[in-house]
Amino acid sequence: MNSSLLRRFGFYFAGLAIGLVLFAFFVKGRGVRCEFAYLPNARTLKNIRIKERRFSPEIRQLMDNNEIDSTEISNILRDGDVDFSRSKAKVDADTCKVYIIEGTLRNKNIELTVHNCDSTALMKTIKIID
Q1: Phi, psi of 72 (to 5 degrees)
Q2: What transmembrane ranges does the database entry give (predicted)?
């Protein structure tokens, strides 16, 4: 390879690195939170998190009995894994998508069933799995 071409690549990557450092510095100073949500699991969970949450009577009863709280559900929606093979993501426009989210709650594996509608997310069921 030609040494002038290598030199150009060196300048390019050095400038790119300096630009990324400056960009990160300015973005961090503004309190902007960067979030990597490009994979299907992350996009789905983010889509559910930003919507108004509603709870089924079953989950509401668990919350009333202090067996679970909304913070724990938020943690599941942040750290959980969507089981796309059992979820019903391809439905008609007038029905809600149904997602099965697997996560941990107090060191137990659980499944949270969420009905993801246009403007709301209904937490339908939660159960312990083996």
Answers
A1: -65, -35
A2: 9-27
pTM, full prediction: 0.71
* 8-state DSSP, 43: H
User: How is residue 46 written in tokens?
Assistant: 């983010």
Q: Which pLDDT tens digit goes with each residue over 89-126? A: 887 767 899 999 999 988 899 999 999 998 999 999 99
Is-contact 59 68, C-beta < 8 A? yes
- Smallest CA-to-CA distance from 52 within 105, 112, 114 is with 114
CA dist 24 and 47 (Å) reads 25
Coil/strand/helix, residue 128: strand
Q: What is the pLDDT of residues 115-124, one digit of tens each?
A: 999 899 999 9
